[in-house]
Amino acid sequence: MINNGLAVNSSGDVATLSGYSEKVSRHLTANQSAAMKTALMISGQYSHTSKSKFRQACLIHLKASLAPAQDVLA
């Protein structure tokens, strides 16, 4: 899970994420959350077609969370 809170550097100063890093973090978190919700919905589907559709959506979100820099504009 991504920690997008405050961080303390070696000098004791509190640092926050930069604008781009924050966008990437939000993108990653949103895709991980969407993948988890989609994965939970798979078991509630009856038809093979519907299960496949939800599995594909889950994989799309997981892939997007692994490569966030490609999808987030600077």
Secondary-structure map:
Blueprint: E1 7-8, E2 14-15, H1 19-42, H2 48-66
Antiparallel strand pairs: 1-2
What would your notes on this structure say?
- The protein is mainly alpha-helical and 74 residues long.
- Helices cover 58% and strands 5% of the residues.
- Strands 1-2 form a two-stranded antiparallel sheet.
- Helix 1 packs antiparallel against helix 2 (48-66).
- Domain count: the total is 1
Task: Tell me the number of helical segments per DSSP (H or I, 4 or more residues long).
Answer: 2
Give the CA-CA distance, first to last residue: 22 Å
Q: Kindly report the average pLDDT value.
A: 78
Q: How many whole angstroms does the radius of gyration measure? A: 16 Å
Unreliable runs:
none
Could you say which overall geometry the principal axes of the C-alpha atoms support?
Answer: elongated
Order of helices and strands: EEHH
Total beta-strand segments: 2
Q: How much beta, percentage-wise?
A: 5-15%
Q: Which structural class best describes the helix and strand composition?
A: mainly alpha
The largest β sheet comes out as: 2 strands, antiparallel
Spatial order of the strands forming the largest sheet: 1-2
Helix content: 55-70%
Structural features:
single chain, 74 residues, mainly alpha, two-stranded antiparallel ribbon, 5% strand
Question: TL;DR?
Answer:
The chain has one domain (7-70). The protein contains two helices and two strands; from the N terminus they run ββαα. The protein has helices at 19-42, 48-66; strands at residues 7-8, 14-15.
